[in-house]
Amino acid sequence: IPVEPFDLVIFGGTGDLARRKILPALFRRFCAGQMPHEARIIGAARSRHGADEYKATVRAAIVEFVGGNEAQSDALEGFVDRIDYVTVDARGTDGWAELAGKMRDGCVRAFYFSVAPALFGDLAERIHHHGIATEQSRIVVEKPFGNDLATARALNDTLAEHFDEGQIYRIDHYLGKETVQNLMAIRFGNMLFEPLWNSQYVDHIQITVAETVGVGGRGEYYDKAGAMRDMMQNHLMQLLCLIAMEPPAKFDPDAVRDEKLKVIRALDAVEPHHIVRGQYQALDGEHPGYREAAGNPRSSTESYIALKAHISNWRWAGTPFYLRTGKRLVARSSVISVVFKDAPHSIFGAEAGRHANVLSIRLQPNEGITLQVTIKEPGPGGMRLVDVPLDMTFAEALGPEGGDPPDAYERLIMDVIRGNQTLFMRGDEVEAAWAWADPMIAGWTARGEVPKPYESGSVGPDHAEQLLRRDGRAWRGIK
Ligand code: BG6
């Protein structure tokens, strides 16, 4: 179903994110017939381009990042027809009147701030000053949303000077992933799991987001961020919220976000000995180690972090949540595992062993769900038990569409146009997440801690294994 006609202005329209993610996502939605004839995308940046030159940039981006037949087809020309460009100076006066002149009445106006956060205030102020925004206009901002609580607050305050919270769409692209949305469907669309979803039945929960990529060309940004700010405070935090929150009364933006916020606010401070930070080392001279990639030979920034979190509320008191994420690990794998408690009593005797059910939700790749169940080992040798997987992949269960879900940005950008904030972070949520992360960062900085080295292509530092071993538990394999 096509969305309403819109004017989408992409500030930073020539930048990496626009070329890699935003424009390809828009193109795919165009191909899917979701973009009405009147939709227009206006690139805006400081570089002096004519519209035709920008169209060529867009064409090249689609060919590079969408590729295949789609990008060759007439569709590409149809898409490019909807593209325009304005040269604007975010800190000056150039281009603003021209941009104002391009805005059409009766269309949704959305402004994507795909620029450094230092420019958010300038953009917001100028959009407002030139009367470019209406009360229904939306702005979209990317992470990193601040560097700590103080800077996030300052950003929220700056945006609030010109826009209501209901107009601000803070992107965490994990929320746009089909499988992440599925967490809510699995939890709240089934009767089977929810009664067991608490500390009485759940021994612990693991959230792993493992990547094989290193920091690549983003060393300068990453070295100031590290895995805590880049992944843990936002993406893993969102996963934790969705897996731990109370059922919202309905699937509506504030109902969902209120419940997520309660989870974040119920998190205990994480004790220093429950945090493991790591830094990847070079591999056979083939791949550079972290410090080389980051261009900082003495860097003490972590490219890996594991920690044990506790949620102090009625549902989860006593159930640890183990979270880990890192770069240059053995495999790309994002999985949430809910490990249930052992049966209270084994009628089969001690030799039957200990067996626990585990519900694993694979977010990427090979998206699907596995429920580990215990059955009788076949054969006449008595009652021995064995664990087997009850396995489902979305690709098999749902056909090609299930196996090839749309990119997170496709869903999120269309939600901006539709005016649906459910999958976007509210200002108080982001601030609460920083309030949880900040003391950890301050602690290891004050103690002068250096991350533990780990081999590229491994599962991370040994200390992370010990974090669970100490509790008589083990990480589920990354591969
Ligand atoms: C980004 C981080 O937000 O998420 C990157 O800045 C990370 O460092 C990326 O690689 C991971 O996203 P995905 O969708 O590839 O899991």
TrEMBL record:
The gene is zwf. PROSITE patterns: G6P_DEHYDROGENASE. Keywords: Carbohydrate metabolism, Glucose metabolism, NADP, Oxidoreductase. InterPro entries: G6P_DH, G6P_DH_AS, G6P_DH_C, G6P_DH_NAD-bd, NAD(P)-bd_dom_sf. It comes from Sedimentitalea todarodis. Substrate binds at H173, K177, E211, D230, K327. This is Glucose-6-phosphate 1-dehydrogenase. NADP(+) binds at G12, G13, T14, G15, D16, L17, A18, R19, R46, K143. The active site is at H235. Pfam families: G6PD_C, G6PD_N. Signal peptide: none annotated. HAMAP family: G6PD. It is an enzyme of class 1 (oxidoreductase).
